[in-house]
Amino acid sequence: MVETKRLCHVHCARSCVDQKRAGLHLKLLEMRPHWSDLKQEEQFRIIDRGETEPFDIAIPLPAKDRSDPEGTSWGVDLFWERFRCKKCGRCCYTPGAGLHLDEGDMERICRHLGWSKKRLLSLCRYDEVLGAWSLKQPCPFYDPEKGCTIYPARPLTCTRYPLHPALKEMPYHLAVDAFCPAAREFVKETLGWWIVCEANWARILRDMEG
């Protein structure tokens, strides 16, 4: 099955995204109504654990191919088309959110604020495990009323959130942080997209066996 999913990722990524954008899953679900009934209740319970437990959730969109840095971004594009941030600020003010900064982030933020790097680092901590600097939590640039006060220069980590690296057990799919309320909502709304993946996997498996 792993090879089937890999082949699907290599050969069907674009068509898979196009099928989901066009709503093919709705037609497939009509033919298999029990699929959503069986899956939804169980999956919703798992998804809602993200409110209190830190974990990532794979979503039915293709991740960039790790062997190809210039790989497809079709899945990412559709994610941002459909994702709707609630502007709740939870990712900004919650301890442990992990707002990592690379050199480009530091230069951009310092230039935006007219600060020295030393002043910015006074608001950061060094993560020995990751070997990277992170903004202390809650984020010093988050204002409960105004939101992000450095939005045009915010770290790349923030521009990509809630997308996270693909899970080891699901390397060909995008993953999101279940802590994000909008991400959990997205996962629930697109749960039916998995039926398109299953249909494509079944077709590839038949071709392999034939």
How would you characterize the overall build of this protein?
The chain is an alpha+beta fold. The protein has two domains: 2-83 and 164-209, no CATH class; 90-160, no CATH class. Helices cover 50% and strands 13% of the residues. The protein has ten helices and eight strands. It has helices at 2-22, 24-31, 33-48, 74-82, 90-93, 103-113, 117-121, 156-160, 181-189, 194-209, and strands at 56-62, 100-101, 124-127, 132-135, 142-143, 147-148, 163-164, 173-177. It has a three-stranded antiparallel beta sheet with strand order 1-8-7. Strand 5 and strand 6 form a beta hairpin. Helix 1 (2-22) packs across helix 10 (194-209). It is elongated, with a radius of gyration of 20 Å.
Brief account:
This protein has helices at 2-22, 24-31, 33-48, 74-82, 90-93, 103-113, 117-121, 156-160, 181-189, 194-209; strands at residues 56-62, 100-101, 124-127, 132-135, 142-143, 147-148, 163-164, 173-177.
Helical residues, percent:
40-55%
List the domain count as a whole number.
2
Strands across the major sheet, in which order? 1-8-7
* Proportion of strand residues: 5-15%
The stretches of 5 or more residues where confidence is low (pLDDT under 50) are none
- How many β-strand stretches? 8
Q: C-alpha Rg, in Å?
A: 20 Å
Distance between the termini: 15 Å
Largest pleated sheet: 3 strands, antiparallel
What is the number of helices? 10
What overall form do the CA principal axes indicate?
elongated
Strand and helix order: HHHEHHEHHEEEEHEEHH
Mean of pLDDT: 88
